[in-house]
Design a protein that fits this description.
Blueprint: E1 3-5, E2 12-14, E3 16-19, H1 32-44, E4 49-51, H2 60-72, E5 80-85, E6 87-88, E7 91-92, H3 96-110, E8 115-120, H4 128-145, E9 148-155, H5 159-165, E10 175-179, H6 193-198, E11 202-206, H7 227-242, H8 247-256, E12 263-267, H9 271-287, H10 291-301
Parallel strand pairs: 3-4, 3-12, 4-5, 5-8, 8-9, 9-10, 10-11, 11-12
Antiparallel strand pairs: 1-2, 6-7
Helix pairs in contact: 1-2, 1-9, 3-4, 7-10, 8-9
This protein binds nicotinamide-adenine-dinucleotide (NAD).
Domain NADP-dependent oxidoreductase: 16-287
GO biological process, one term: L-ascorbic acid biosynthetic process
GO molecular function, one term: L-galactose dehydrogenase activity
Length: 316
């Protein structure tokens, strides 16, 4: 598995990252043995980056990931674990008091003494000035305490990143996690990469399968995409299937092709999915992407290119 530098953190993380939201049963039930096998297989195949949040499955993802990592008995310094704060099943709270308590609760569920990355989760749901003036300073203190090595921010709209990064002291945010903005149907993250690089910010791109849109099974009920986008993605998946090919493999490979992105975080709930996604990466390194299929799928998705959905509160 290819390892890539994550901004200026000094961390080298696997190009394919393990998104643990499915372990919180977000995309359907996952038996514990299946979850443990998925994490074990990921480690065996060279995945060293794991991402979770107290929000996923109302803390279940963190507890299950912690159990799976303990069960795998992997040395702590061989893995990079990220979790988040500020977004919970009960709602949003980015106050200093909440995030300071939240990290302790996350560490207890994960069974860890520290996380490598602590993100503010989906910051577009609060006034961004709170993130700048209250949350990031609180996370700095957490970093100084040793409970988190690096600090990140996540969310859907891309303008949140420039707003916050232009206003915090240099070095106080190490990474961003963007989702659903670098895949075959949406490449809008690309325009932000030079800015992020100039600031020394590591880039994590999540949801290469557009949260299930680019899979044969299709998206879960709760998927927020407009119907037009869902239909186009289904047509693209059908096209690949008719040709005996996999939309998922193509989508994974496409997202992995941009080296300005340190890791492609894909949600996985079984050893089989881990194997398929790692095989997609290996095959990409060996023989490149299927250009013909890519052009056909891009043509199907052209009418919905960069079509997204609203997320968060209206910012002044
Ligand atoms: P994704 O695009 O990675 O899609 C996940 C879905 O695809 C799941 O249903 C999974 O079971 C399925 N899948 C994975 N590999 C497959 C394969 N080979 N064949 C068929 N189906 C396959 O979406 P995601 O899980 O939402 O995103 C990845 C991770 O990124 C999350 O688990 C989470 O850790 C992180 N994330 C963070 C944020 C945020 O911070 N706001 C938002 C989205 C995602």
């Amino acid at each position: 598995m290819e390892l890539r530098e994550l901004g200026l953190t000094g961390l080298r993380i696997s190009a394919v990252g393990f998104g643990a939201s499915p372990l919180g049963h977000v995309f359907g039930d996952v038996p514990r043995d299946t979850a443990r096998a998925a994490v074990r297989r990921a480690l065996d195949l060279g995945i060293n980056f794991f991402d979770t949040s107290p929000y996923y499955g109302g803390t279940v993802s963190e507890s299950v990931l912690g159990d799976c990592l303990r069960h795998a008995a992997v040395p702590r310094d061989r893995i990079v674990v990220a979790t988040k704060c500020g977004r919970y099943k009960e709602g949003f709270d980015f106050s200093a008091k909440c995030v300071t308590r939240s990290v302790d609760e996350s560490l207890a569920r994960l069974g860890l003494d520290y996380v490598d990355i602590l993100h503010c989760h989906d910051i577009e749901f609060t006034n961004l000035d709170q993130i700048v003036n209250e949350t990031i300073p609180a996370l700095q203190k957490i970093k100084e305490s040793g409970k988190a090595r690096f600090i990140g921010i996540t969310g859907l709209p891309l303008n949140i990143y420039t707003y916050v990064l232009d206003r915090v002291p240099p070095g106080s945010i190490d990474v961003i996690l963007s989702y659903c903005h670098f895949g075959i149907n949406d490449t809008s993250l690309v325009d932000l990469l030079p800015y992020l690089k100039s600031k020394g910010i590591g880039v994590i791109s999540a949801s290469p399968l557009a949260m299930g849109l680019l899979t044969d099974n299709g998206p879960p009920e709760w998927h927020p995409a407009p119907e037009e986008l869902k239909l186009a993605c289904r047509a693209a998946a059908d096209h690949c299937r008719k040709k005996g090919k996999s939309i998922t493999k193509l989508a994974m490979q496409y997202s992995l092709m941009n080296n300005g992105i340190s890791t492609v975080l894909v949600g996985m709930n079984s050893a089989e999915q881990v194997e398929e996604n790692v095989a997609a990466a290996t095959e990409l390194s060996a023989s490149g992407i299927d250009e013909e299929l890519l052009h056909e799928v891009e043509a199907i998705l052209a009418p919905v290119k960069n079509l997204t959905w609203l997320s968060g509160i209206q910012q002044a």
